[in-house]
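fyi for ur records
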Amino acid sequence: MKIEHKLMLSYVVNIVFIMVIGLFSLDSMNLTLTKLKFVEIADDLNSSFLEMRLSEKNYFLFKDRSALDEIEKNINVTLTSIEAVKNDIERAIGAENLNQLKIYINRYAKAIEEEKGLKKSGVRSELELRLEGRNLRDFFKTITQLERKNVNTLILRSKKVLLISFLVILLLSVVGGRLISRNIVNSMREIEGLAISISKGDFKKIEDITSNDECGAVVRAMNFMSDELKNREEEMIQSKKLASLGILTAGLAHELRNPLNNISMVAQNFIDMQDSLSRKQMVELMTRVEEETKRIEETVKNFLDFAKQREVHLKDADINDTIRQAVKLMQNALNISNIELTLSLDSSVPHVFIDEPQIQEVLINLMSNAIQAMSPGGKLFIVTHEGSAKDTVDIEVRDTGTGIPPEVLPNIFDPFFTTKGVDGTGLGMSISYGIVKKHKGTIKVESSVNIGTTFTVELPAHKE
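which gave:
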């Protein structure tokens, strides 16, 4: 059964149960109101009966026959009042008790009528009149007390039924809600676990799906998605391997072609002109060959550095000292290019856990790029400070160079991507990016054309 149908069924059951209780409560309330109304009527009738008995006593004490007329008048008024609310009284005390009440009233009326017919009251007639009046009073008093008791009993019973009904509805709601929610929660937990596994690259599936509701449908869809992702991942891995191989091969071939062409040209010139070359010219040609050979060597070295996973040897270090060591290595290049360097190193930054030579390599690469972007002349700023979250140490390398165009910026860390033409291999930033990532850090770049570029390296702070 679907969750929607389960919820609808639970709603219907609760609504039906509440309606039954409501109808019962309404009936009980109407009956209670009727009985309370009878009690109010009984109070009025009881007042009339007390007046009759009082007139009766006046008659026997003072022999005032007008008292009998007063009693007869009250009896007629009482009978008229009873007929006016006959239905309410009958529902409250029942038809049998109502008829019995009328009988007692008629007997009392008959006794009054007989007493009025006598010229002189006798002991026997007096006793009969008193007896009928007492019987009427006792009967009415009895049914009135009984109805008051019934009202209290009815109220207590309604209260008890309502309390039990409330507990039953609460129990049904809790148990039903618990069963439905447990089913949903268990399914959601399975789905959550599957989603987490998929996000980690573990494309497993949930077996033995017993639920046929919406959660079961979601689980089956997740299983299908897991299979599809697994197949797609294998395809993407193979595609990436081929793409990477193509990029690396094309990049390497491009970087090697120029120096090899230059060497070939020098060798051809040497062959063609060797008889007319002076020693100095020969040395110059061989020097060019050596330079181009070193360029090939540098390209291959950078390629190997990028391709292989170099082992990282981490140790506690003061990043400011690491920066100063890198600046010493670059000081001569800065002086030759007439670059003004400003260091703003925060002495309060925490230590970092790094491989110092590799981080120095990143800093040297960033400074080299800055020099090439500004030379000759320009300003270079290196700043350290604690990250905004207090868990990183940030290094900013900012120059006042030509900047990087916006359309080029997204590719700055791609292998073999360079804006330097034949003067660059396009591997330096890729290697730097890989080094920072191996240190669980990040490297970001912001640049504006003709204003300058800022590289920010964030390294995790070393906490004991």
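Residues 318 and 351 are 5 Å apart (CA to CA). thats all i got for now
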